[in-house]
Amino acid sequence: MARLPTGSPREMIETVSEQLGCSATSREVAAHLDLHDDLQHLRQEFLVPTVADLPPSDLTLRDGSEECIYFVGNSLGLQPKNTKKYIDEELEKWAKTGAHGHVMGSRPWAWAENNLEALMANIVGAKPEEVALMNGLTVNLHLLMLAFYKPTAKRHKILLEDRAFPSDHYAVKSQIQLRGFEPSKSSIFLKPRQGEDTLRTEDILSKIEQEGASIAVVMLSGVQYYTGQLFDMEAITRAGHAQGCYVAFDCAHAVGNVELQLHDWGVDFACWCTYKYMNSGAGGLAGAYVHEKHTDTVKPALLGWWGHNLKTRFQMTNVMDLQPGVKGYRLSNQPILLVCPLQASLEIFNKTTMTDLRRKSVLLTGYLEYLLQYHYSRDEADPGKPYVRVITPSDPAQRGCQLSLSFSVPIRAVFKELEKRGVACDMREPDILRIAPVPLYNSFTDVHLFISILESVLSAHA
Question: Quick one: pLDDT at residue 5?
């Protein structure tokens, strides 16, 4: 994006429109931004469904041969083109070599996931030895909490968002019960102020200071799945440590979306899935992180043979030679068919940097916000006109690529009509539409076309 003007997204958009001599809402602006997008070639690394491919599409409303507008990467990323190739290679190896595949080929099954951990570590801002690829997100959350959540009569509480993703609530509740405590007394839920949609950083820090002596673990999202709010993970970690708490993050909606520095921030542990912004496919191999400072002090509560040192693992002595740090939390060998799509995606990430992706993301999402505000702000002079309210923070530093939209008209009708027109997005109860333009494969033209389609939907509704 180096050839574009600098400044806030609004300033950049309006400067470009002045240079082109057109309205800031003109498609020419989107085309210009795409022309100067240094990352536009990465879209070619993915399979983008056509409008006709999507089951809800109505081909009387949109040309089925066109690519769909895929704004649901916050739920499931697009498939990297190399995914099928890599899976086919392993199926062929299995067919031709059988058990020899454990130690042969570019992905020996006995340690294939190890080869990807340095690439993943780059994305989350950690050292390779602090990252493990294993299991699913909630499994990893349980394994890490079993090791780090050691409640006492004085310090037994876990702090999390009131609207954290359900799996986090279930995991926290069950961990508290497992330790013999009462969830209603050992959980602290953070709620926005009355009339507000998102949490204020100062309120989070204040709650940690007030309750810190009783908090064992601060366990928040990196990016809040419902509102799209990006939490100040560094400040939260610092505040938690000042009170003697462990600080952890569920990074499911943050990894591959925003810049993370888990090691430098001193985060104690974290986990994430890889099928959203990391494009590894439904149920893809998850990730876990434990800071190196805990290597000798916090040990896994559950052991499995994949946590055993690889050099001595197959000696079968039944005497654990535990791998240090997060590697020791492994239980079983990882499914090679889940390693393949994650490798395909990580190789694409390796062609750029999170800094460059984030730079594009801020402008891409800012462009979406600009057009939404221009066309669909509430008009007091025309109370019957449909409007859209963005509940995600307007400050780019407090959000990732996702905008969560609240409509003045019934949300289900809007969602249904967008799907008919080849827009892939998602609705979350009770009344939010989540739109996520992903910088790896979405374009500014995608955003402009989405706004045009949304206009036809809301006009028809009105």
Answer: 75
Dist CA 436 CA 453 (whole Å): 16
DSSP 346: H
The bridge status of strand 287-290 relative to strand 131-133 is: antiparallel
CA separation (Å) from 90 to 30, 158, 339, 375, 424? Answer: 41, 42, 10, 50, 31
Helices 9-20 and 27-35 cross at an angle (nearest 10°) of: 100
Find the helix or strand (DSSP H, E) in which 192 lies: none
φ, ψ (nearest 5 deg) of residue 320: -65, 125
Phi-psi sector, 381: left (phi>0), alpha (psi -120 to 50), beta: alpha
Beta strand 426-428 pairing with 79-80? unpaired
Q: pLDDT by residue (tens digit) across 134-158?
A: 999 999 999 999 999 999 999 999 9
Q: Could you give the CA distance from residue 7 to residue 163 in angstroms, rounded to a whole number?
A: 33
Nearest by Cα to 139 from 292, 331, 336, 341: 331
Nearest residue to 393 (alpha-carbon basis) of 224, 258, 261: 224
